[in-house]
Amino acid sequence: MVKFIKTKNYDDMSRKTANLISAQIISKPDCVLGLATGSSPIGAYKVLVERYEQGDLDFSKVVTVNLDEYKGLPRTNDQSYYYFMNDNLFGKVNIKAENTHIPDGMEPDSDKACADYNAILRSVGGVDLQLLGIGHNGHIGFNEPCDEFEKDTHCVELAESTIQANARFFASMADVPTKAYTMGIRNIMEAKKIVMVISGAGKAEIVEKAFFGPITPAVPASVLQLHPDVTVVADEAALARVLDRI
Known about the structure:
It is a single chain. Helix 7 links the parallel strand 9 (193-198) and strand 10. The protein has a 7-stranded parallel β-sheet with strand order 1-10-9-6-2-3-5, sandwiched between helices. A 3-stranded antiparallel β-sheet has the order 4-8-7, with helices on one face. The protein has helices spanning 10-27, 42-53, 81-88, 110-123, 160-166, 185-189, 204-212; strands at 2-7, 32-35, 63-66, 68-70, 100-101, 129-132, 154-157, 179-182, 193-198, 230-235. Helix 1 packs across helix 2. The chain has 7 helices and 10 strands.
């Protein structure tokens, strides 16, 4: 079941997303959060940090698992997702470093990196709330459009559209990673609750395809129509093509 929360703008979307995550932490202090990177969740992370600083949130027992990481990008690189998470959240709250988990992008053996991360996902006992964004081509995590849904953590060749979208963060196209380790669709779908954050008119078309079109691996996010508890928090621009259906 997919529920929609319409918001006025990015800041409103970020606050409402943070409300859902905050409620999860307060109701279950030792919860497992599945986390995402990219521009969409940055505002929500900022609100969570503010609430921690105000004494309203305690991350000391929270466990996190991240969706993905670029292959071959060291953690010290400011475009790695390890760096991103520490810069935007982990380094600003009282979460324990040993309770945060991100795929090891520097493990050259793809089979080992994926098996190791699948073992971590099993060890945490299940994700209580999974935060997601959505790519312009419908990817969730780095599960790109393909012929069949990938089940578990795997190494993916990034789509050209994803590489182009990421290029703005790197000095040159040659620096943009072309592979990543990512949770699979089954990993994501096993979360008890899913919250997807979407912003901007550029996402309006894919929102319509993902949630009101056929379920197909050609639009990976469309599989979320089968999940029992999905909340989409999106601004009016992103919902422009589906406002009359939500």
